[in-house]
Design goal:
The protein has about 525 residues and is mainly β. The protein has 4 domains: about 170 residues, no CATH class; about 110 residues, Immunoglobulin-like (Sandwich); about 80 residues, OB fold (Dihydrolipoamide Acetyltransferase, E2P), CATH 2.40.50; about 140 residues, no CATH class. It is built from 4 helices and 40 strands. The protein has a 9-stranded mixed beta sheet. Strands 1, 5, 6, 7, 9, 10, 12 and 13 form an 8-stranded mixed beta sheet that branches. Strands 32, 33, 36, 37, 38, 39 and 40 form a 7-stranded mixed beta sheet that branches. A hairpin with a 2-residue loop joins strand 37 and strand 38. Helix 2 packs parallel to helix 3. The relative contact order is 0.08.
């Protein structure tokens, strides 16, 4: 339960120091001043963030007032979810604090061998043991019991109780740790020491992610094709492997997560035991790189990409010399397809040209059709279809194009609900291909903007003396053909009441998971 109170007077909390030893290493200052900062426990290669419990906190609202927060929780020994790690051969662990820490106390409860999280609470072992913790370093008991720790920390803005658990040594002598954390991947490290495995320890490519608070889960899709290689974990040694989850989960937002990996104690075919291990990690603001998610409108075959993003974003990118990855594995330009969603990793610099372009691209991530980041199920490469229709219209009855300085590409009523960026990208591609200045106005907008003039002296009829209007409009609701979606439309190029060419009753069958190929024209009409 939290109670939030606005206080009109600025109050500076001065906390007394129950223990004055300070750890030798501090964490970076917390950027979230509204809640207590993190406390980390470092045990060998394993690093976990202690679980926050009860705290009392105040922060400045920036308007001459303060907010006070009183957050209540159960005792750490009664937590159902608590940060934890298994004891191994390391004899000590270290507490790492935010540099604003004033003082701390560390208390330990011996929960025995039969501890059940959330059930064997403090009422069974009320008196905790104060732990000597010089410079943040404390000793790990060398028995097989489970221990729960509470860290009570004072800060200038208040105080907080934290908890973590040290489990008995793993029966296989395994610990799982992580390194090189980014928003899209990390390195997992299995270390083996002691324990009593009965066969060969091995792990595979499969993993799953969950947020540490349990509210946001990342569970691997059941139809994901995991590779079948086995990684042997040597006795009294370690093995590491790189994990890239962008193809499956995308880039993670800043926060705390857990990665889960399965391990087998393999004695022979059909004779093995399985266990799951987890390690906690944090994605910070610095780990979240600049990643732009865009769609390839055109240019996949040549590598000169025209990309459409959200809103009005249209960009170009020469992918010929870029590092390209398909589902996390190195690939080449053949992995690119028009209509494909791509993740562009770049340095954040955008060159303000039209279309815009990236300052420096680190890599391009693409994904197989049917994966989470490229699921299919939409009108894939609809832009490619419309570009083909517009080019065909340009070529037919070419006399209508004579003397045209402008074209307007009106896709406002085209099937498929193109984004504004896709419409703008199509217009720009058409402009560069045919050497005319492209607009995206409807006929009514052209009239209102003064591009059209009266035709034959009539105020009801108009013509475009130095331009051509191209439009694609839905002819009827889309249907199906042999079970596949069938997009139906009309297409027209218009210059005056007596100067127009129309493709009517057009139909295009979408191949479900790939790009568009051809379309049919029901009838041709000339005005």
């Amino acid at each position: 339960m939290k109670k939030i109170i606005s206080i009109l007077l600025v109050i500076l909390m001065l906390c007394s120091c129950a223990q004055t030893e300070e750890p030798g290493i501090n964490l970076e200052p917390s950027k979230d001043f509204k809640t207590p900062p993190e406390v980390k426990i470092q045990y060998g290669d394993v690093s976990v963030n202690a679980t926050k419990g009860t705290y009392s906190w105040e922060y400045d609202n920036g308007d001459g007032t303060m907010t006070a927060v009183e957050a209540d929780s159960s005792h750490p020994t009664a937590f159902t979810e608590i940060a934890s790690f298994s004891a191994g051969t390391e004899k000590t662990a270290e507490l790492l604090f935010d540099e604003s820490m004033i003082s701390f106390e560390l208390t330990r409860w011996d929960m025995g061998k039969d501890y059940v999280p959330g059930k064997n609470g403090a009422e069974n072992n009320v008196s905790g043991e104060t732990v000597d913790c010089e410079n943040g370093v404390f000793e790990i008991p060398e028995d097989e019991n489970v221990y729960i720790y509470e860290i009570y920390v004072k800060y200038p803005s208040g105080s907080c109780h934290y908890g973590f658990r040290v489990d008995s040594p793993d029966e296989w002598g395994l610990t799982l740790s992580v390194s090189d954390v980014t928003a899209t991947g990390l390195t997992v490290i299995f270390t083996q020491s002691g324990g009593n495995p009965t066969g060969e320890l091995m792990t595979g490519s499969y993993y799953r992610l969950e947020s540490a608070d349990g509210e946001l889960a990342y569970i691997a899709e059941g139809d994901v094709a995991w590779t079948s290689e086995a990684y042997m974990i040597p006795k009294d040694g370690s093995v590491s492997m790189s994990v890239n989850w962008e193809w499956l989960y995308g880039a993670l937002e800043p926060g705390t997560y857990k990665i889960f990996k399965g391990v087998s104690d393999f004695r022979g075919p059909g004779d093995y035991d399985d266990k799951e291990y987890s390690a906690e990690f944090t994605v910070g603001e610095k780990a979240v790189k600049n990643i732009s998610i865009m769609k390839i409108v055109d240019g996949a075959e040549t590598g000169n990409l025209v990309l459409a993003g959200e809103n009005l974003d249209v960009m170009t990118l020469n992918a010929k010399n870029a590092e390209i990855y398909l589902d996390g594995e190195p690939a080449d330009i053949s992995a690119l397809m028009d209509g494909q969603t791509v993740h562009i990793h770049h340095n954040g610099e955008i060159l303000e040209t039209w279309p815009a372009s990236f300052g420096k691209v680190e890599k391009i991530e693409v994904f197989s059709l049917g994966s989470k980041n490229q699921p299919g199920g939409t009108l894939f490469d609809l832009c490619g279809l419309y570009l083909k229709v517009l080019d065909d219209l340009w070529e037919v009855d070419s006399g209508l194009n004579g003397g045209a300085e402008y074209v307007s590409i009106d896709l406002s009523a085209a099937p498929g609900e193109l984004t504004e960026a896709e419409k703008s990208a199509i217009a720009w591609i058409f402009e560069n291909k045919h050497g005319v200045q492209a607009l995206t106005f409807t006929m009514e907008e052209l009239k209102n903007e003064g591009y059209l003039t009266a035709a034959g002296g009539s105020n009801d009829l108009y013509q475009w003396d130095n331009g051509v209007l191209f439009s694609i409009t839905a002819s009827e609701d889309e249907g199906t053909y042999n079970g596949l979606r069938n997009v139906k439309f009309n297409a027209m190029k218009w210059r005056s009441p007596l100067g127009a060419y129309i493709f009517s009753d057009c139909s295009a069958v979408w191949p479900q998971m790939g790009t568009w190929t051809e379309y049919s024209v029901g009838a041709h009409a000339i005005a």
